[in-house]
Specification:
Helix content: 10-25%
Radius of gyration: 19 Å
Number of helices: 3
Strand order of the largest sheet: 1-2
Oligomer: single chain
Low-confidence stretches: 1-14
Order of helices and strands: HEEHH
Distance between the termini: 47 Å
Structural class: little secondary structure
Number of strands: 2
Mean pLDDT: 75
Strand content: under 5%
Largest sheet: 2 strands, antiparallel
Length: about 130
């Protein structure tokens, strides 16, 4: 079994009977009482947090050339406690153990692709530093 397959399995050995098998044991600073613990229905009519990652209402099931991928962006697509992404090693280290992620792990070794953004320059060379 690959590391990726292993990271997607339900978390073993939870002592807390309140935890769903797909949840991780978040440190107290990452728990919020105002976020839903139960599955919820988002604005697209897709149930989020029910462990069924296929839904007839999902844009993924009705994808076409005209589908804007941005329709699947935002918090409404991620359950605050039951998202499969929490089971990666990096996220478990952070959310369960409090070990912050290493800086720069997703950076290109010799290219700074954010330079123009940081310098306030747009792709067309126009200064956008005052747009914020």
């Amino acid at each position: 079994m690959s590391d990726r397959d292993e990271s997607m399995k339900p978390a073993p050995g939870h002592d807390d009977p309140e935890l769903d098998p797909f949840e991780i044991d978040f440190r107290p600073e990452f728990r919020s009482s105002d976020e839903p613990r139960e599955p919820f229905v988002n604005s697209q009519g897709v149930v989020i947090g029910d462990h069924d990652y296929q839904s007839p209402n999902s844009p993924l099931e009705q994808w076409s050339r005209d589908t804007d991928p941005a329709v699947m962006a935002g918090d409404e697509w991620v359950h605050p406690f039951k998202d499969v992404g929490f089971h990666t090693k990096e996220n478990r280290d952070y959310f369960e153990r409090g070990i912050p992620p290493q800086g720069g792990i997703f950076m290109h070794p010799d290219k700074d692709v954010a330079y123009e953004v940081e310098a306030g320059q747009a792709e067309d060379g126009e200064d956008r530093s005052s747009d914020a």
